[in-house]
Amino acid sequence: MEALLTATSSDYSREMVSAPPKSVAGEEAWIGQAQRSDARAFEALYRLHVDKVYGLCLRMTGNVSEAEDCTQETFIQAWNKMLKFRGDSAFSTWLHRIAVNTVLGRIRKSKREQDRIQAVNDAQPARVATGDTGELRDLAEAVDRLPERARHVFVLHAVYGYSHDEAAEMMGIAAGTSKAQLHRARRLLVQQLEEQGFEA
Amino acid sequence: MTEKFDDKLDRAARELATEISPKRDLWPGIAEAIATPKRSRWTPILAQAAAIVLLVGTSSAVTYIATKDSNGPIVSVAPELVFEQAAFGGNYHLGPGFQDARNSLRDDLDVELARLSDEAREDVQANLALIHQVIIDINVALEQEPDNVLLQQKLLRAYREELSLLRRVGGLTRNVMRRNDI
Questions:
Q1: Burial class (CB in 10 A: 0-12, 13-18, 19+), B15
Q2: How far is B144 from chain A (nearest CA, A)?
Q3: Is B34 an 8 Å CB contact of chain A?
Q4: Residues A76-135: pLDDT tens digits?
Q5: Shared-domain flag, residues A118 and A171
Q6: Is-contact A71 A50, C-beta < 8 A?
Q7: Residue A159 DSSP class
Q8: How distant is the Cα of A122 from the closest Cα of chain B, in angstroms?
Q9: Contact between A43 and B22 using a beta-carbon 8 Å cutoff
Q10: Contact B15 A75 (CB under 8 A)
Q11: Does A64 contact B at CB distance below 8 Å?
Q12: What ipTM did this prediction achieve?
């Protein structure tokens, strides 16, 4: 555990699957064109942001198929709501909000989440390709096994850096609940990692 | 577990990849979905055109009615002029007050129409039918695009026009009756 928790960016960041830096010079123009129903401009926005959206969906669902569906649904919804984007926040943040709503909506609607948790508990599924290596992969897997709400709060707050207020707003919960869920997530993560032989 | 430990956990969490490339290209599915008429240009244009036709037609009808008096027999509204339950896309509902007002005016419509000349009556019926078709068309579009604010506004305007026309028909025929009484 100590090794995991003392990991530095130099250990892992080079091996992440993160896309190479992409230019955002044309983003504003693409947004304007997409708001005028230009599908090609919207595709450019998709190419620019798909890794961010898919990453969030994958972290939140822990399931490749669900993450792919959520990503597609997020961009379809974004297309339908393009006129509502006023630039009050970054376009990527706006997409993240849609993605979170999409993930939560799908979970509420289909209850596939329960099936997913069961599947994780019953068998060790093939590790989803997140690009995490070594002990970060162990942490990622432990995060995947967290209960739904604790996992979502942990992903939004600890992984993506949203404040409790922002995470709470995205999830439609109180900021206090977000803090409580983060506390719960941390305890469960320690417990899981210790069971795997890590020591804090 | 100490606060320092939590900090270390958070630091490790920040090292997790936040941008991950999907294994397959998801764009074709998205492109197919957005290529459907859900957000095509014709929908708002059609709605705008219909609204313009609606406004012009309604204004013409009311002007025509205002110049006509009639004591014709009481007739039924044309069978094809069906007042369906007011709808507002798939995700929205119109208030009970609106529905009550609409139902009340619709109940009086046969009597009111009977007081109009044949030409005026046909004109009103045609305009109501036009409004209804516009409402249906916009509702269909809203089913595909429930968050389209423009369509929502157009639909609301269409319902208001319908209500306004029904009220004006009633008011005009009462004026006709009063003039005849004199």
A1: buried
A2: 10
A3: yes
A4: 999 999 999 998 889 999 999 999 999 998 887 766 545 555 555 544 444 555 666 666
A5: no
A6: yes
A7: I
A8: 25
A9: no
A10: no
A11: yes
A12: 0.75
